[in-house]
Description:
Pfam family, one: WAP
Strand content: 15-25%
Domain WAP: 22-66, 67-113, 114-158
Distance between the termini: 63 Å
Structural class: alpha+beta
Number of domains: 3
Number of strands: 7
InterPro entries: Elafin-like_sf, WAP_dom, WAP_four-disulfide_core
Oligomer: single chain
Number of helices: 1
Largest sheet: 3 strands, antiparallel
Organism: Cyprinus carpio (Common carp)
Helix content: 10-25%
CATH topology of the largest domain: R-elafin
GO molecular function: serine-type endopeptidase inhibitor activity
Shape: elongated
Strand order of the largest sheet: 1-3-2
CATH class of the largest domain: Few Secondary Structures
Amino acid sequence: LIHFLLIFTITTQKLTQIFFSLRNLLGHCPAKLTVVPSSRGCVSDKDCSGGHKCCVFDCGAVCVPPAFTKPGVCPRRKFGAGLCAEFCVNDSDCPNNEKCCSNGCGHVCMAPYTVKPGRCALPKGTPVCAEYCYHDGQCPAEQKCCPTTCGHACSEPC
């Protein structure tokens, strides 16, 4: 029984260490303080409860919810610049699977586009000066949105 309790205690301690190690890896500190901190004067993530991170801002070290980078790629801007306002600072500010993307002047939440496997072949032949696609998700099957001599078009990956 003592042997079992010793193994149980060691295993519990190890699991706690692993949990705190993983917790320190999950998320990152947000670029700006946009929420009320859950506590102040922390030294490390271990000082914060509820999965919050210890982050340093102008007001000192505080515990705040972590920021996360969501999967996917922000769409290319079609033309010009968008509204010069900051509607988000990082992906954590955006709902569902949306990412915080630049619109050429500010940042807005946008649905990411799909990046399909494979590479685009080098442009060749007659110039195609039109934008037939902006990202892989607009192309059928395995085709990718690839640069042409002066635009973009769907083509088979190489």
